[in-house]
Amino acid sequence: MAFQLNKDECLGCGACAYTCLYHAISPVDENMTLYAIDENVCVECGQCSHVCPNSAISAPDGWKKIKKVTINKELCKGCSLCRRVCAADAPFGEIKQPFEIDQSKCFQCGHCASKCKFGAIVVEYE
Q1: Domain made up of 66-125: CATH architecture
Q2: pLDDT, one tens digit for every residue, the chain (126 residues)
Q3: Does pTM surpass 0.90?
Q4: What is the CATH number of domain 4-58?
């Protein structure tokens, strides 16, 4: 389930769309005064809700904020899938060697963890 945008509260400023690195938010009218979240694209990172000046975006039920994302080097095979799916370009490393996550780039969306085929990405919640 994706984050929800309350259309009655949306100011149409576009801050959420500008912030979304996954392009899950776009205008739904030609005047670009109303936005919508594509729940098939949203990775539930929460960045949009942080920048919304009118608090028009809310988290889905049961959503937990991620505190930190790391890679277990013993489980990582160095396939680079995490790097390929990360919009922030936070994972780095050499192919066939354990990858790491640049914490200064990572914005704790957890998308890489949902795609890792080896269960090597550890997500810590607040």
Answers
A1: 2-Layer Sandwich (3.30)
A2: 789 999 999 999 999 999 999 999 999 888 888 899 999 999 999 999 999 999 999 998 889 989 999 999 999 999 999 999 999 999 999 999 999 999 999 999 999 999 999 999 999 998
A3: no
A4: 3.30.70.20
Q: Measured at the alpha carbon of residue 10, what is the angle toward residues 9 and 12, in degrees to the nearest 5? A: 155
Does this chain's domain 4-58 share its CATH topology with 66-125?
yes
**Look-up of token digits 């919640």:** 125
**Nearest-5° Cα angle at 64, 9 to 82:** 105
Half-sphere exposure for 112 (CA within 13 Å, toward CB): 31
Strand, helix or coil for residue 17: helix
Q: Where are the domains of the chain?
A: 4-58, 66-125
